[in-house]
């Protein structure tokens, strides 16, 4: 998986709140699970916290110890929760151990998506539901704002982070559903979902300036004068887009696939 070391706090105040937009949908999708829920890539702990409130026993894992620590801070000491430092595609759990498996914006970050979905299927018990989200191929709702500032400032793109063709897959409902089918899961729903991400301009920029994901790594790779120009143009553009409540309200989309283990 991509390395998030050192960007945890920047992620927490910025793009973690974007990723939280699908959490309720995912927990709803696996409601009624007969066994414990596995939260793969727990990040700041929003999904684990909501699942615990719904009465699930939860195992939450992330490859980054700092993310696991933030999840622990989020949920507290809960006897129904177990936290682990672990990563796809090699999870330290037996076959069929979980009654529900959730991977919120994880498969779009891994080096071998097919192997990782197979691993999600392996740890799912018979009849368990597996819920996954990814970002779709089209641009994110925040991209015109940040991307426009980058263009204005002359930001130079970094080398492509796309997967090799033989490992990649279409970032569409059909593409993610195909990975589930290849892993011998029965696809129940495959759809694009939408919501509005409400975020302050400074919190969004904290993720960029803090080096989160490709957009942040691109920013950090620039010369200082280009970084300053990008930050200035971002704030100018954000000032034009901000709502009276002081927030940006950005349309957001994701691919959500719900599947079942036979």
UniProtKB/TrEMBL annotation:
The keyword Transferase applies. The keyword Disulfide bond does not apply. Residues 38-131 form the Methyltransferase type domain. InterPro entries: Methyltransf_11, SAM-dependent_MTases_sf. The lineage of its organism: Bacteria, Bacillati, Actinomycetota, Actinomycetes, Actinomycetales. Coiled coil: none annotated. Keywords: Methyltransferase, S-adenosyl-L-methionine, Transferase. It comes from Actinomyces respiraculi. This is Class I SAM-dependent methyltransferase. SUPFAM superfamilies: S-adenosyl-L-methionine-dependent methyltransferases (SSF53335). It holds the Pfam family Methyltransf_11. GO terms for biological process: methylation. It comes from the Bacteria. PANTHER family: METHYLTRANSFERASE, UBIQUINONE BIOSYNTHESIS O-METHYLTRANSFERASE, MITOCHONDRIAL. One of its GO terms (molecular function) is S-adenosylmethionine-dependent methyltransferase activity.
């Amino acid at each position: 998986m991509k390395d998030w070391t050192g960007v945890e706090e920047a992620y927490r105040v910025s793009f973690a709140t974007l990723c939280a937009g699908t959490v309720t949908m995912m927990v709803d999708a696996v409601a009624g699970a007969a066994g414990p829920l596995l939260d793969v890539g727990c990040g700041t702990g929003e999904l684990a916290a909501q699942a615990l409130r719904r009465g699930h026993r939860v195992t939450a894992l992330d490859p980054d110890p700092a993310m696991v620590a933030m999840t622990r801070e989020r949920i507290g000491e809960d006897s129904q929760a177990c936290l682990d430092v672990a990563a796809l595609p090699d999870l330290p759990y037996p076959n069929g151990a979980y009654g529900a498996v959730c991977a919120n914006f994880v498969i779009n970050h891994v080096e071998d998506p097919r192997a990782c979905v197979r691993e999600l299927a392996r740890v799912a018990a018979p009849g368990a539901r597996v819920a996954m989200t990814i970002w779709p191929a089209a641009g994110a709702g925040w991209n015109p704002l940040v991307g426009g500032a980058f263009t204005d400032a002359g930001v130079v793109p970094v080398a492509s982070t796309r997967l090799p063709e033989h490992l990649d897959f279409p970032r569409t409902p059909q593409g993610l559903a195909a990975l589930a089918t290849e892993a011998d899961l029965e696809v129940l729903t495959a759809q694009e979902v939408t919501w509005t991400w409400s975020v302050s301009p400074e919190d969004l920029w904290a993720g960029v300036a803090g080096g989160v994901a490709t957009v942040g790594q691109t920013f950090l790779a620039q010369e200082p004068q280009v970084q300053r120009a990008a930050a200035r143009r971002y704030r100018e553009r954000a000032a034009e887009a901000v709502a009276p409540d002081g927030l940006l309200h950005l349309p957001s989309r994701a691919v959500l696939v719900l599947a079942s283990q036979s």
